[in-house]
Amino acid sequence: MTSATEPNATLVTSTPGEMRRVAAQLVGVPIPLVVLCANGVYPLNLHEFSCGYPLVIYVYPGSEASPEGGGDTALMDAVQHRAFRERQSDLEARGYRTIGVSSQAAHAQRRAMLKGRLNHRLLSDPRLELAELLQLPTFTDERVRLYRRLTLIVHDGHIVKVFFPVGSAGRSAAQAVAWMTLQGIS
């Protein structure tokens, strides 16, 4: 396994134990100071935003490529966007805001927002700065490094829960809401 801080490195997470370790090591970690393009238009300081609002950050590949032979396609990204759009009122009722992050170009995310009628922010991270700073899992397809799908629950600027791997893109928003319910966040 190579270090995730090396350029073009891939954090290999193939076994359930490795996946649990990735999730466990992120809990308690502060959201780093990183400014990403939001909604294809304006910069957003993710650290400052996470200190001001509880967040659900879903990270997705934003590509046709898949580390598991088809599980992380553009179709699955669209399914996940819709799932968070449909659960937005549940999350907002609990005080949480939703953000999607991928390595997609800002103009591609803008199209996805319009097509999916999304009300939440999508952040473009083409240099995978967040992956580097948090050592998030990635994969490489045709020499392009992409995010693996995961969900972060953030409160007071710190990660409090990580869902990795995401078993179903269409159920990831419901999974976050169910966890909040179990934690008494209503």
Structural classification: alpha+beta
Strands across the major sheet, in which order?
2-1-5-4-3-8-9
Proportion of strand residues? 15-25%
CATH architecture: 3-Layer(aba) Sandwich
| Discrete helix count | 7
Structure description:
By secondary structure, the protein is α+β, with helices and mostly antiparallel strands. It has one domain: 3-Layer(aba) Sandwich (Glutaredoxin). Helices cover 35% and strands 23% of the residues. The chain has helices spanning 16-26, 46-52, 74-86, 88-93, 106-116, 129-134, 172-182; strands at residues 35-38, 42-45, 55-59, 97-102, 121-124, 138-141, 144-147, 150-155, 158-163. Strand 6 (138-141) and strand 7 (144-147) form a beta hairpin. The longest helix is centred in the middle third of the chain and has 13 residues, at 74-86. The model is unreliable at 1-10 (pLDDT under 50).
Question: What would a concise description of this structure say?
Answer:
The protein has helices at residues 16-26, 46-52, 74-86, 88-93, 106-116, 129-134, 172-182, and strands at residues 35-38, 42-45, 55-59, 97-102, 121-124, 138-141, 144-147, 150-155, 158-163. With 186 residues, it is an alpha+beta fold. The chain has a single domain (16-182), classed as Glutaredoxin (3-Layer(aba) Sandwich), CATH 3.40.30.
Any key phrases for this structure?
35% helix; disordered N terminus; 7 helices; Glutaredoxin; 7-stranded mixed sheet; two-stranded antiparallel ribbon; 9 strands
Topology at a glance:
Elements: H1 16-26, E1 35-38, E2 42-45, H2 46-52, E3 55-59, H3 74-86, H4 88-93, E4 97-102, H5 106-116, E5 121-124, H6 129-134, E6 138-141, E7 144-147, E8 150-155, E9 158-163, H7 172-182
Parallel strand pairs: 3-4, 4-5
Antiparallel strand pairs: 1-2, 1-5, 3-8, 6-7, 8-9
